[in-house]
Amino acid sequence: MRLVVVGAAGRMGRMLIRAIDQAQGCRLVAAVERPGNAAIGSDAGVLAGLPTLGVAVTSDPAAAFAAADGVLDFTAPDATVAFAGLAADAGILHVVGTTGMEPAHLAKLEEAARRTPIIRSGNMSLGVNLLAALVRKVAATLGTDWDIEVVEMHHRMKVDAPSGTAVLLGEAAAEGRNVDLAKARVAGRDGITGAREAGTIGFAALRGGTVVGDHKVIFAGAGERLELAHVAEDRSLFAQGAVKAALWGKGRAPGLYSMADVLGLDAL
Q1: Would strands 147-154 and 93-96 be described as parallel, antiparallel, or unpaired?
Q2: What are the two backbone dihedrals, phi and then psi, of residue 231, each rounded to the nearest 5 degrees?
Q3: Which stretch of DSSP H or E encloses residue 21?
Q4: In b/e form, how buried is each residue of 148-169, taking b as 16+ CB within 10 angstroms?
Q5: Is 14 helix (H, G, I), strand (E, B) or coil?
Q6: Rounded Cα distance, 250 and 117, in Å
Q7: CA pair distance 203, 149, nearest whole angstrom
Q8: What is the C-alpha separation between 244 and 210, in angstroms, rounded?
Q9: What per-residue confidence (pLDDT) applies to 267?
Q10: Is residue 153 within a helix (H) or strand (E), and if so which, with residue range?
Q11: pLDDT given at position 223
């Protein structure tokens, strides 16, 4: 499978290049960066700490997509929307790990998914997606007299909060309860907030140090508490998951897919 990495000079971009190089059944055919980036023209393999791959970093995504089967994208919301349109024009798979997306961005992805397959997830790891499936099941089992809180911690450089993974877990809890997360969500608390409203799903975001990603979903009942958690120790697992998603998505019909589809977790 011929793959393109966009945002190739970033931390995740370099990890994606390495993950493709280590995987079977795929190869890197292009690496894309914004015009003016210092990495333009350099070899993508060397950029990622590998031997020379013979793939020069380019600033022309349309040309890169035209010669590929899929694109791996962990960039920024506005950039991802632009790449989605280009991927749809080229008829290639778009794997999206970008976080911090607003409803307007998601609507654009849904539009592009009518023309090409898009696999989007706030987290590409097996562990987190298994956790989401468990959260959905537990939320469906317990009543609204159990309070749900999603707590996450990331490194000090993370720019969005709550994290895409936290939102993924909150969505799983909301789906389990058959409610709209946008209406049930409470993001942070400060001051005199009053008593907790039954049925809400709370979020707390912590930032500091070099934490890769810690996530916990707390179900708090009267006299007892259930906690489901995931700890990410290595960012490379996200890149490996993205490559797995790309290989699964090759040849799929247009549509918007998730990592639950890739991993076959919907039955849980």
Answers
A1: unpaired
A2: -125, 120
A3: helix 11-22
A4: bbbbbbbeeebebbbbbbbbbb
A5: helix
A6: 9
A7: 6
A8: 26
A9: 57
A10: strand 147-154
A11: 96
* Sign of the alpha-carbon dihedral angle for 81, 85, 87, 88: positive
Give CA–CA dist 172/146, Å, rounded.
15
Look at phi and psi of residue 194 and say left if phi exceeds 0, alpha if psi is from -120 to 50, else beta: left
Structure tokens at 102: 């607003």
Residues of the chain with pLDDT under 50: none
Going by C-beta distance under 8 Å and a sequence separation of 6 or more, which residues neighbour residue 116? 87, 88, 90, 91, 92, 93, 94, 254
What per-residue confidence (pLDDT) applies to 100?
86
Distance set, CA 57 to CA 35, 94, 148, 215, 240 (Å): 10, 19, 45, 34, 21
Contacts of 164 (CB under 8 A, 6+ apart): 97, 98, 99, 100, 101, 121, 122, 123
Which residues form the catalytic set? 154, 158
